[in-house]
Write the structure tokens for this entry.
Amino acid sequence: MKQLPPRAGAVSRWCLLVVCCVCLPGAALAWGADGHRTTGYIAQPLLSPVARTELLALMGEVDVAKWSTWMDEQRDRLKKEVPGSNQWHYDDRPVCGGPVDKAEYCPNGDCASEQADRLMGVLANPDSPVEARRQAVLMLVHMVGDIHQPLHAGENHDQGGNQVRITLVGPLFPTNLHAVWDSDLVNMVLWRGPEAARQGETMVRGNAKALARQFASEFPAWRRGTLDAWMEESRALSRRWVYDPLPNFQCGLPTQAKGSGPMELPEAYLEGGRRLVPQQLARAGVRIAQVLNTTLEAAARRRQTSAAMAPR
């Protein structure tokens, strides 16, 4: 497995990174922003000619990076108009113990894996309402990206790490475990200094190209598998990279004792996160393209079959 090389003095540079990211106006701090756009930039060149043609006809443009943030940007509106959609960003699969019935972590079918599977069916059917298919594109691009953030696929009864208090740069910068993986580690990977940060989209696009080159040999293997298999893969990564390396973590016990102070993450933990996050961003981009290619190519075939069978 290819990995980006570690950097010396990561923690000291990480402290500078957090300060700079907080102070820079308009700096995006979430997998739902720079991280998601990175996955979109990786996905777009991997779209098949058929998928591009279908997307252009359906969406009026082909801009996967722009679509990738729509579901977060519209979260409040969707929460009102599409009940349960605020839970479609993740599966709360437990990282400890054996298999769990899906009804326990996906009540009423409101979880990423169940809804993404449904939306793939909508998009693959050319007879589905146009607006439903457009929304399926916007949601799938985001949701397939989300499930590659390990804490969107596995957790330890702590709301995907949201209840685990973390401090990275002393008491002035409190955060939580979920935010570390959503935002902080992503920024640590994408960070290229103040000048690059001012370039905004150029920095994100450039990093996406670099990640695509770095992991290109892995793409054929990453395209294989089902959505549920990808989710299980992320759940296993959550156990291995997110929870097991935490100080004093034990399955069967709360991730953090109630009333305890914020947990300090050791340097080795951050270095591990830096190695995993680039891989997950690249994986997500490859699989976004794979989902769009397979569903839209299926739609095109169904449309052609219907046309061939229509009476003349």
Q: What stands out?
A: Residues 1-30 have pLDDT under 50 and may be disordered. The radius of gyration is 20 Å.
